[in-house]
Amino acid sequence: MSAIAQIPYYAGTVGNGKLYGYTSLKARPGQNQQETYTTFQYGLTSHLDAGIDLYTGPDCAYWGTLLRGGLPLSKWFNVGGEVISSFDLNDNFRFFYLTSGLYLNGAITADSRLFWCSNTWWVRYRGGHDTYSNYEYLGYNIPLTQGRSLTPMVGAVHSWQFHDDLQPAAGLYFSFGNYNLYLWSHDLLANHPRFVFGLDFVL
Question: Which of 37, 145, 176, 179 is at 20 to 30 A from 163, Cα to Cα?
Answer without folding.
Answer: 37
